Amino acid sequence: ADFWAEKWQKNEIGFHLSEVHPQLVKYGNLMLDDGVSAPYFPKRILIPLCGKTLDMPFLVSQGHEVTGVELVRGAMDDFVKEQGVTDDVTEADKAGMLVANVPIKEAKGKQGAGLKFVIGDFFKFSKEVNGGRPP
């Protein structure tokens, strides 16, 4: 954990893309569109080690419910600052993990769309942390 916290603190995050992953843009519809993997309804998407990926707001803008799990709090802090929603984040401690609901502007009016950011050890992520729903 300390290794990754230090990487974020020093901004040594060369793995982070400054755009939505091109393969997600190109092929995401093959998994998520109406009638492909299921009739349309907001999909529940889990992104472990999410960092501050722009894939999350992209997926939310498509109407999906996204949960990003990240070990380092600084990644979430950077994300909400860059999204311009710092003052609108609500946080709660659930089963020893920080759970934050992060409003995404593009989700307005899309029923079921939203982003939940969970800070903690991915291997401790459980349905207790996830509001009683399986991860």
CATH class category: Alpha Beta
Mean pLDDT: 84
The computed structural class is alpha/beta
Strand content: 15-25%
Count of extended strands: 5
**What is the CATH topology descriptor?**
Rossmann fold
Low-confidence stretches: none
Which range best describes the helical content: under 10%, 10-25%, 25-40%, 40-55%, 55-70% or over 70%?
25-40%
Q: Name the CATH architecture.
A: 3-Layer(aba) Sandwich
Number of structurally distinct domains: 1
The shape is: globular
Q: For the terminal residues, how far apart are their CA atoms?
A: 22 Å
Major sheet: size, sense and barrel closure? 5 strands, mixed
Radius of gyration: 15 Å
Protein name: Thiopurine S-methyltransferase
GO molecular function: thiopurine S-methyltransferase activity
Keywords: Methyltransferase, S-adenosyl-L-methionine, Transferase
GO biological process, one term: methylation
